[in-house]
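Aim 2 progress update. The chain analyzed this quarter is reproduced below.
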Amino acid sequence: MSVWGALAGGFVGTIVLTSGLRAASEFRLTRMDIPFLLGTAFFSDRVRAKAAGYMLHFMFGLVFALVYYAVFQAIDEASWWLGALFGAAHATFAGTALVNILLPVIHPRMGTPTTAAEASPLLEPPGFLLLNYGTSTPVVTMLVHVAYGAIVGEFVSLAASGT
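Predicted structure tokens:
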């Protein structure tokens, strides 16, 4: 197994994940915009927030590929289907605990279920499984994260076999 395979997989996987989310947004399957969500944690200006968010999202994609790689190393196995399982777990955690519980508490520009009526946050809280961003958002989130994981797993597996 190779860390370079994981990084290459993370690079390609992040492009697929980000493009899939952007396409789903353009096709009105979701209102979720992860780069905007990330960027507004640091900037109130929408343009800067989006630019910073895309950079952060891409860096996180590489970091998560390294986390997946560490798990592949620990269990001494890597494959596209195992990566897809990791992606499903990743999406489940992100849609439940991460964005539903943790993020609204620490994000300075996100509303919470207890936000006062006179407050005007830039973002509404995502809600359980991101359902506040549309009823198909959980499906879209799961699909793109499974694809990301499968890509990372396949790249690590290919690097391990030397092809």
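The mean pLDDT is 90. The CA atoms of residues 35 and 42 lie 11 Å apart. These observations will guide the mutagenesis experiments scheduled for the next reporting period.
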